[in-house]
């Protein structure tokens, strides 16, 4: 398979890319580094990136940001950071990316446990994750040519646990092996419209 | 109680307003008609509207729109109709409205069954509803002065069933009585951060 992994140099993206690279051709995209540059918050950047790489069998997005802050500090504009990047970035990736997929290809997006079990400071981040969950279920109904669309929603992964544990009181970490498996399930399984939740 | 109902002249808003008006002071706001004009897609309009009415005990929003269209016809800009109106309109209402509430007041937002069980043509509408569900759970963690935040998510209501039934194959309608009760549960109950789902 030819697999494009956007954010394939990140904390989760790197082990996912390493896993798939064992038996597949993996192309890594990122905002600043990788085989090619894609900034998902800019649909022109998505279009240009995709136009450079020919047909794919799978697109995996492990990228996108949203602002974390106390609710009373989040301005209207702050919410639009997440709306443009993690929300519409991933929506646009589906809109534009499916035309670059071979029949029976797949698109895998990423959210996180905040969609279902938020913590303080995440009014914006949780909102964006929850929006993607419902989007995936809806858009999956209209995929064609056997193309599948799923989203992976993980708890705090082991390699980010030290950094984030104070924000997630009582949350348990997800091993990197399990994190990788969530993406394998989406890419190599046959599910469509699934929210693949790996929480502990 | 003094209750502001935004969208209080709509299919669901009117019976909700009539119910609460029996024992409360109800102020109805709408884009074009009502006791005062509020267009939730414009945060300046929300601010101006709220500044005219003094302190409240409850704010109920049964307003907001999103574009319905086949997935391959929805442009990037089409998604922003829902993001500005039903999503950020309701977020801004919480941001700005809570400062106009008496202690132990409440804010009730509205979504719908699409958040959990979407149908064709609703990639944008479902996304917006799902985003609000996660937002409410997150923002509710940071409400102060006893202020509560909930969201009502209804199936297709009886009075809109004929108009929408072809879009919702096999969905059952929700009686207007049940629809009203969902809002009563939010406003007069003690729950915070709840997604009040009334599906059949």
UniProtKB/TrEMBL annotation, chains A, B:
InterPro entries: NAD(P)-bd_dom_sf, SDR_DHRS6-like, SDR_fam. GO terms for molecular function: oxidoreductase activity. It comes from Flagellimonas nanhaiensis. Keywords: Oxidoreductase. CDD domains: Lin1944_like_SDR_c. This is Short chain dehydrogenase. Gene3D superfamilies: NAD(P)-binding Rossmann-like Domain. Pfam families: adh_short_C2 (PF13561). Belongs to the short-chain dehydrogenases/reductases (SDR) family. The keyword Oxidoreductase applies.
């Amino acid at each position: 398979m030819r697999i494009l992994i956007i954010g394939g140099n990140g904390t989760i993206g790197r082990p996912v890319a390493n896993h798939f690279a064992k038996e597949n051709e993996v192309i890594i995209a990122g905002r600043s580094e990788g085989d090619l540059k894609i900034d998902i918050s800019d649909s022109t950047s998505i279009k240009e990136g995709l136009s450079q790489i020919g047909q794919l069998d799978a697109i995996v997005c492990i990228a996108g940001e949203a602002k974390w802050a106390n609710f009373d500090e989040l301005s209207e504009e702050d919410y639009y950071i997440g709306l443009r990047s993690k929300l519409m970035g991933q929506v646009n990736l589906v809109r534009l990316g499916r035309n670059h997929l071979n029949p029976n290809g797949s698109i895998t997006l990423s959210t996180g446990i905040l969609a279902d079990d938020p913590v303080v400071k995440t009014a914006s981040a949780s909102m964006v994750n929850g929006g993607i969950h419902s989007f995936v279920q809806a858009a999956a109904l209209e995929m064609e040519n056997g193309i599948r669309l799923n989203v992976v929603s993980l708890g705090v992964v082991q390699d980010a646990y030290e950094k984030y544990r104070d924000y997630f009181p009582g949350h348990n970490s997800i091993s990197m092996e399990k994190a990788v498996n969530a993406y394998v399930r989406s890419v190599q399984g046959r599910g469509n419209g699934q929210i693949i939740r790996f929480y502990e």
